[in-house]
Design a protein that fits this description.
The protein is α/β, with parallel strands linked by helices and 365 residues long. It is built from nine helices and 18 strands. The strands form five sheets. It has an eight-stranded mixed sheet with strand order 1-2-6-3-7-18-8-16, with helices on both faces. The protein is elongated and about 80 Å long.
């Protein structure tokens, strides 16, 4: 199995595909499953695969995200697996490979999900029936070196919540010599930047809010731009705090529009909820880590401001008990860095740990 996991990783790493375009990735996963004789389903209108082994009424599910990022690498924009989804696919396939020949008293469903990076691929899989009869859900993800050292494993990743705003300043251009005849969209943007820094929540609740993009002006250096587009990234550890930040931003933008005499239009995109950690699933992951690697390897919980659309599964099915297992991999410089690297020896360990955790979910209540 060890050779297979690394081989799968090398293939997916060399053939990254961005969200909703994971066509070859979907086909490769389906071909592997077909070779094993594992029952699975693909879809005409969306990428991704849902597979199942075992028997019984109750279903334990496992999710792997399969998309890559679109980013600049060595000066060229291209698809790139800098978030480690190629590793996640390979570890989940490895766990499936281990378990498929075992006698299982529950069904194990493997959800190979598209478009995690856009924050809504999980919703598409839910619409395809991914959660039918599911009582527990597991995920797995590599973690940066500052969160987990090589040889450490986390029973749960406490992701934060996130939401993003796209906005537009609508005013009138003016000649550089006659600024009073228009509205300077850059003044509006600078005000937004300063006012974002004056939005406070309790310091005991991790949160952040910042501009992430601005476009304004033209090639003419003597025109004051009346129009601009901008984007804002909003994050909080808990969903309630995120919604409070969202409301504060809306009030702020309305006040700034009035102050500058412009129109500001905006829309919120890609809401990703924070984690609701399942006590049963996280306990089973802890027990599996302790059994395989001992107390020094176990980290009960990582708290991170990063988000993951995995948590839509628990939003849509509130009684679902779920956890995402973290894998220490000496991952540097960090997730989403175009030159992200990690120790590939963890791929087999991650697959075996996931398989052992699933066994515990099958055998124990």
């Amino acid at each position: 199995m060890s050779t297979n996991v690394l081989t799968w990783f090398e293939h997916f790493h060399a053939h990254p595909e961005v969200s909703w375009k994971e066509v070859e990735t979907t086909s490769t996963i389906a071909d592997i499953l077909a070779t094993w004789g594992v029952r699975h389903e693909t879809f005409d209108d969306v990428t991704g695969v849902i597979a199942e082994i075992g028997s019984g009424e109750e279903v334990i599910a496992v999710r792997a995200d399969i998309d890559a990022l679109w980013q600049q690498v060595d000066g060229t924009f291209k698809a790139n697996h800098s978030c480690g989804h190629d590793a996640n696919i390979s570890m989940v396939l490895g766990a499936l490979d281990v378990l498929r020949s075992e006698a299982l008293t529950k069904r194990i469903r493997f959800i190979f999900q598209p478009a995690e990076e856009q924050g809504n691929g999980s919703l598409a899989m839910i619409e395809k029936g991914a959660l039918a009869d599911v009582t527990q859900l597991f995920g797995i993800h590599l973690r940066p070196a500052e969160e987990l050292a090589l040889g450490q494993f986390a029973a749960t990743i406490q992701h934060g919540a996130a939401i993003f705003l796209r906005g537009r300043v609508i005013g009138a251009d003016a000649h550089g010599a006659r600024p009073h005849q228009g509205q300077n969209a850059l003044d509006v943007i600078f005000t937004i930047q300063q006012q974002l820094k004056s939005i406070y929540l309790s310091p005991f609740e991790p949160h952040s809010i910042k501009l992430t993009g601005v476009q304004a002006g033209s090639d003419n250096l003597n025109i004051i731009p009346g129009n601009a587009t901008f984007s804002i990234d909003v994050r909080a550890q808990a969903n309630d705090e995120l919604l409070a930040l969202r409301d504060r931003v809306e009030v702020m933008l309305a006040q700034i529009a009035s102050l500058h005499g412009v129109t500001i239009d905006w829309a919120w995109e890609d809401f990703t909820p924070g984690a609701v950690v399942g006590p049963k699933s996280s306990r089973q992951a802890s027990e599996a880590i302790l059994e395989r690697y001992g107390p020094s390897a176990l980290v009960e919980r990582i708290v991170t401001s990063g988000s993951d659309d995995f948590h839509f599964y628990t939003v849509k099915q509130p009684d679902l008990d779920a956890t995402v297992i973290g894998i220490g991999a000496n991952l540097t410089p960090g997730l989403h860095h175009p030159e992200m690297t990690f120790d590939r020896s963890v791929l087999q360990e991650g697959a075996l740990l996931l398989a052992e955790t699933i066994r515990r979910a099958v055998e124990r209540d």
